[in-house]
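Hello,

Our lab assistant flagged a job as stuck in the queue for most of the afternoon. It eventually completed. Since we weren't sure the result was trustworthy after the delay, we are filing this so someone can double-check. Below is the sequence as submitted and the structure that was eventually returned. Let us know if re-running is recommended.
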Amino acid sequence: MAEMSLHKYQWQGVQFLMDNPRSILADEMGLGKTAEAIKAVAETHSDKVLIICPNSVKYVWRDEIAKWSGDPFDSIAVYTGNALDMYDDHKWYIMNYEAMRLERNKPLACERWDAVIIDEAHRIKNRKAAVTKSVKQVAGDRVWLLTGTPILNTPDELWSLLNYLFPKTYTSYWRFVDTYMEVWDSPWGKQLVGTRNLDHLAREVADIMLRRTKKDVMEQLPEKVYLNVPVQLLGEQRRVYDQMREQFIAELGDTDILVAPTVLAQLTRLKQIATDPSILTEGGTEVLIPSAKVEVLKELLADILAQPGKKVVIFSQWSRMCARLAEELKCYNPVVFTGNTKESARASVVEDFQTNPDTRVFIGTIGAAGVGITLTAADTVIFTDKVWTPAYMVQAEDRVYARMNDLHGATIVSLTAEDTIEQQIEKLLASKADIARTVIDRHRLSEILK
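-- returned structure --
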């Protein structure tokens, strides 16, 4: 696979990591921290690399490694529940945070890695958490922490990251707190009530932490940054999808005439199962099967919305999916805009999202919310599923992309179920294929279903 090229500011990030083998890359989301870290691995000729990341992006890392390093998939080991074999010929090992606590993965800490990359490193800010303790046992010649939010709330959260990088320097949490926080000795113990000496802290970490925002590098950024998040269907969701797919293929072989509406209905059912089986109904009964996409979406939102002031727009083509997400994400106080939303309420829904700092998630259907409204309070769009027509997707993306005012670019995230029809839909959308012709061409339809 041909290697990709980086922007100038990204090469500066690569050089920073090379010059600082123990450091924090704190670029804002969407600037390419993943690509910079992968290129830094290549430039430092690291041959044994461990990546610890949220479960939702394990396969994003796999795909990005192949894209940015040119290394083949068979050089990349992704943890799927069994202990990773440290004695095979893999170069890259990708683990999720939760797995680090498991006894069978303790040998990871006994290995000496050429490079250790901790993605979304703010997840180890809690010095007492079991995951934090497990991660900190891993050693490497280079340790790079990637996070767009090194400090989520107060400066004391930075201590855990610094302690991992420089344990001999940052030995005492409370000494760090006494230096940079106002501490009150209450009857219930020490209470952190304020900050101090922040200029000194900024100077202290200046040499080991690099932070750029979109505003800093806007001239180099593309108008939209696209990120595909592969999702693995597991358990019952995978079984139901495969069963429906095989049934559909059998029907294709048994009929001499393909009726477009029937085929589209079957394709839609496959798409719904890949997205969330609960939006299907069988004989009037809801299909209660967990959705891998919903779980991945929750993880992504937890990291994105950890950043103060961030807002996210989520699109689906189905009203039932929007209702499902509204229930699953109610902790974020989302607003919902679908074809079922009353005309008299639509303006207030948009205004709430645009102006209310407590309303951080907008959920809408591509058909109803994908045109004619402004959602520029967000700079991130997440598609849980896609429609067949590329123009509709672009229109939806542009709800957050302010071309006239050039307020910001947009990060477009697509959740794609692996080994399903959705991967073929992505290819068709990319090539702007004639979907109508595909639907009535038995040979091409069979290719899509593979």
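-- support follow-up --
The delay was a queue issue, not a problem with the job. The result is valid. Confidence is low (pLDDT under 50) at residues 433-445. The chain has 17 helices and 17 strands.
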